[in-house]
Amino acid sequence: MIVIYGIDTHLNPIKGQLSDVIHACMQSVLGMPEDKRAHRFVPLAKQNFYYPDGRSDAYTVIEINMMKGRKPETQKALIKALFADISAHLAIAPVDIEITIKEQEAYQWGFRGMTGDEASDLNYKLTI
Description:
Layout: E1 2-7, H1 8-11, H2 15-30, E2 39-44, E3 60-67, H3 72-90, E4 97-104, E5 110-111, E6 114-115
Parallel strand pairs: 1-2, 3-4
Antiparallel strand pairs: 1-3, 5-6
Pfam family, one: Tautomerase_2
Organism: Alteromonas lipolytica
Protein name: 4-oxalocrotonate tautomerase
């Protein structure tokens, strides 16, 4: 699951395109299937979104939650792809993008009535 935060007046108009760019990166770097898009947008009023000096109103925070297993070089490749593609397709400068990857053990995920470590039918790899 991916959660994206930003100022509402900037984030709302680009949600669809940003979702497409993020998912394309997830597919190309992690091999995620098309039907595994799980994005949550949290548009905030400017007075409710504090961010570091030197950033613009385009400042966007992307939190990627995933089951543990991807190698550090794979995670770094994902982060770099996101910076490059978001900048290229949405003209958001890398200084205005913050990305965090949060990994949890498979048993800490629950979906389709089971935990992640019980799922034997995932159509993507966790150890890449």
